[in-house]
Amino acid sequence: MALLMKGSEVVNAMKERMLKDVEELGRKGVTPGLAIVRVGARPDDLSYERGAIKRCEGLGIKCRVFEYPEDITQQDLIDNINGINADVTVHGILLFRPLPGHMDENVIKHVISPEKDADCLNPVNVAKVFEGDETGFAPCTPEAVVEMLDHYGINVAGKKVTIIGRSLVVGKPLSMLLLKKHATITICHTKTKNLEETCKEADILIAAAGKARMVTDAYVSEGQVVVDVGINVDENGNLCGDVNLEKVERLAGLITPVPGGVGTVTTSVLAKHVIRAAKGSI
Ligand code: NAD
Fold first, then answer.
1. How far away, in angstroms, is 206 Cα from ligand 1 center?
2. Is the pTM of this model over 0.90?
3. 232 near 222, Cβ under 8 Å?
4. Which of 44, 196, 229 to mutate to test the pocket of ligand 1 (most atoms within 8 A of CB)?
5. Which atom of ligand 1 approaches the CA of 171 most closely?
6. What is the tens place of the pLDDT at every residue in 58-111?
7. Domains of the chain, CATH where assigned
8. Residue 144's closest CA among 20, 263, 18?
């Protein structure tokens, strides 16, 4: 029976480290600040925002929400982001996406200052992830997977890691973060042939497809580490991951639950980035 890798354990361990950093910053007269930039009020964004504020304020990070109406012009949003970039009390910026259809994300993503880009929207930070340059900010979710594996003592060096999903939000940057840690990576996607076999061959399987419970026992081998990044709503309206826990838990060695797994750690990584940005601002 698989052991559960719980997000809360990772969050608690990270909290201890971060509280020390925030104290240290406080002694130097700096309170780390997060700006949450939201256009409109999608329920998913509001829910993530509440979680992020709770996590960050619990660590002593000051959060401010910049909410704009859905019909704000692109230029007005750019002007506002530039104002936030220039605000010395803000060290990290989180911008919710997708933006309304009349805006070009490919323009907006360049506007967020790379030094404050806590969730890796600016191509400068994306490039740093691909270069293996740790001076930038990786996207929070892939880094949360790395935190999870590190916390549970799973050394990926030399291991076969298969990732289902090639998005720029999860799959691609995660493959780079794990490659940097010397894993041998296979990235799968909708055109991958023999998906089940490829997944079975891995030592570590990471599901980030966004397909409710698609990973069954046909994808998993005995003792495998299974990380579920998916956050989906099933046909009954319940939150579930990409992994069918019931079918997989007899086979896997370690597995992350949904909810209570990777998603729980994501806001801690966001907080970690804000604190690092605040340290960098001194
Ligand atoms: P996406 O839709 O942008 O990308 C999904 C990827 O999975 C694509 O590359 C696609 O090729 C691949 N894929 C989809 N169906 C597949 C299939 N049947 N077989 C093989 N490959 C398949 O999604 P995303 O933004 O990368 O998010 C993926 C999942 O992670 C979603 O469930 C999302 O909600 C979740 N997510 C969680 C967090 C978190 O905080 N834990 C953050 C971001 C995304």
1. 11
2. yes
3. no
4. 229
5. 26
6. 999 999 999 999 999 999 999 999 999 999 999 999 999 999 999 999 999 999
7. 28-113 (3.40.50.10860), 140-263 (3.40.50.720)
8. 263
